[in-house]
Amino acid sequence: MSSPDCLQPHAPTPPAPADGHAHSHSHGAGHSHVHIDPASHRPEQRRALVLCIALTAAMMVVEIVGSWWTGSLMLLSDAAHMLSHAVALGISYVALRLAGRAPSDRTHYGWYRAEILAAFLNGLGVLVLSIWIAVEAVHRFQEPRAIEGPEMTLIALLGLAVNVATAFILGKAGATDLNTKSAFLHMLGDTLSSVAIVVGGLVLWGTGWMWIDPALSLLVTVVVLIWGFGLLRESTSILLERTPKDLDTDEVRTSILSSVPEIVDVHDLHIWEITSGYVCLTAHVVVSDLPVSETHVIHEAAREHLRQSFGVGHVTLQFESH
Q1: Do residues 20 and 26 lie in contact, with contact meaning Cβ atoms separated by under 8 Å?
Q2: What CATH number is associated with residue 129?
């Protein structure tokens, strides 16, 4: 027997407070179905994304014009990054809108997985654009082009200001979910790229070294590639429904047995994430021969313990007699 679905929360569990335990938002028996209001799903992140999209798109246009004017590959590479970031931010925003939809008979866990798909697509976009910039940088080593250092530096300084502003906006909104985190990493990567462009422009301005432009482009690309691979690895782990890296299955099993004395054994234990912070758990639990009405109390005790201790937001237990 499992707990009725109407008693199950359908939203990510908030981050644990300083004492290491997650806040409990469960409802007792007899309460109505617990659904989230679509407008209340990560509202700060959504507002931040809209503002960042506008700033990023505007700066992208400036850098494209600046690249044509100065001949700088670094400005063009940064404009390409800006384009990827504008698309990534747009995908992240759409994903948050979808994730705010209530569950239905066909989407029992809602649309939360859209956030992870967005993070995965953002990671792929970072890799593809980074490879393109790396290839173009190699060509620039073979065929150097004249670059206007002062103009390039001024445009890079403006781009740096925009990137710092957008990274600050996203960071202040809270990059607690993988989707917003992916957008935040995009902006950090572009901030680093802008710093490199400013440095490259100053060096080029003072020395005339044309090779500094493709060299710094390659350096930024390597750093962004590392971030992109990390993002793909984390989003793929969730898509494959692997156990969250901060949870140990044996530890969870032992904790259930020690905290709920009526449960004498736990097997077929499965733990996975729907999206960042929304952990689900199913298990078969063995109890003594009890009336069905008493298993409900045991289920509630186990569910509350798992929520408080491990941040598990959705628990389904199948009871078996000892």
Answers
A1: no
A2: 1.20.1510.10
